[in-house]
From TrEMBL, chain A:
Descriptive protein name: Mitochondrial distribution/morphology family 35/apoptosis
Entry keywords, A to Z: Disulfide bond
Family the UniProt entry places it in: Belongs to the TRIAP1/MDM35 family.
One Gene Ontology MF term: phosphatidic acid transfer activity
Residue numbers spanned by region Disordered: 77-103
Keyword Ribonucleoprotein tagged: no
Assigned GO CC terms: cytosol; mitochondrial intermembrane space; nucleus
Natural source organism: Lentinula aciculospora
GO biological process: phospholipid translocation
Source lineage: Eukaryota, Fungi, Dikarya, Basidiomycota, Agaricomycotina
InterPro entries: MDM35_apoptosis
From TrEMBL, chain B:
N-terminal signal peptide: none
One Pfam family from the record: PRELI
UniProt domain PRELI/MSF1: residue ranges: 1-170
Highest taxon of source: Eukaryota
InterPro entries listed in its UniProt record: PRELI/MSF1_dom, Slowmo/Ups
One GO CC term, this protein: mitochondrial intermembrane space
Species annotation: Lentinula aciculospora
Residue ranges the record marks as coiled coil: none
Name of this protein: PRELI-like family-domain-containing protein
Length: 103, 176
């Protein structure tokens, strides 16, 4: 399953996945000081997003373009669009940083 | 509509379980996954990560499945997830994109940190069939049985990745 839906996109997918996974490990563990206030956390996550852009931005662009093209060629974009219309996922709003609720 | 829910705990902290969950494909317990692609991913203003993935999986059709209606043994599912590293929660919902007129199945996973530093996972499944012709109940039960078998396998897959991660982190530490 380390395959992409289109074989020509698989090398890009692998490169993107490695880049993302490395970034993601750091993203999951916010530095203790960053969690101390909503403003600090907001700055921290902005920095994390920028870091992702720097490290993985260009491979993501290429990979995404490859997948979009494959989706169109295979006629899958219609299926995706339809599922979004049929069943727009109403997710609960993102938790505000200061709350710690569990559902 | 049928509903089923199951919860269990991991000894490991939330961040490593979430990492293992994200890395769960490929693993030997998930050989039915043919392809997996990220089609969108954003960091929200609240600092959470929202991801949408398109996954192709091999399915085994039950003997009584109407062959004219379900013509292929592979189908597409959509996975949508949201990770909140501050609140230490991970929500992930997977649903089938095809054959929805026969059966709609949605699996939701919620992984959160517990007060004592462990990690709790709750998995819910909703199966809905409006197919009629006397097949609704069987389709819904079949979907639910598949789900139950899948939850155990999924847990084994994640546990495997967890132990690999633990080992590799130990090695990194001893190499200093």
């Amino acid at each position: 399953m380390a395959q992409s839906l289109a074989s020509e996109c698989t090398p890009l997918k692998k490169e993107y996945d490695s880049c993302f996974n490395a970034w993601f490990e750091g993203y999951l563990e916010p530095a203790v000081s960053a969690s101390s206030s909503p403003e600090k956390y907001s700055k921290y996550s902005q920095r994390k997003a920028e870091e992702f852009q720097q490290k993985c931005g260009s491979v993501w662009k290429e990979y995404k373009a490859c997948v979009q093209k494959a989706l169109k060629e295979k006629g899958l974009d219609a299926m995706l669009q339809q599922s979004r219309e049929e069943n727009p996922l109403s997710r609960p709003p993102p938790l505000p940083p200061s709350s710690n609720s569990s559902s | 509509m049928k509903y089923h829910s199951q919860s269990f705990f991991y000894d490991d902290p939330w961040s490593i379980v979430s990492l293992a969950y994200f890395l769960r494909y490929p693993n030997p317990y998930a050989s039915h996954i043919i392809s997996c692609d990220v089609i969108s991913r954003i960091v929200t203003p609240a600092g959470t990560l929202q991801t949408t993935r398109l996954i192709l999986k091999r399915g085994s059709l039950p003997r009584w499945a109407p062959k004219g209606i379900i013509s292929r043994a592979e189908s597409w599912v959509l996975e949508e997830s949201e990770v909140d590293p501050l609140g230490k929660t991970l929500r992930c919902t997977t649903k089938n994109l095809e054959f929805t007129k026969v059966m709609k199945m949605e699996e939701s996973v919620f992984i959160r940190q517990t007060e004592d530093g462990q990690t709790a996972q709750t998995t819910e499944a909703r199966v809905l069939s409006g197919f009629g012709w006397g097949l609704t109940k069987r389709i819904e039960s079949h979907g639910l049985n598949r789900f139950k078998a899948h939850v155990q396998r999924s847990r084994e897959g994640v546990s495997l990745i967890l132990s690999l991660l633990r080992e590799s982190r130990l090695q990194t530490m001893t190499l200093g």
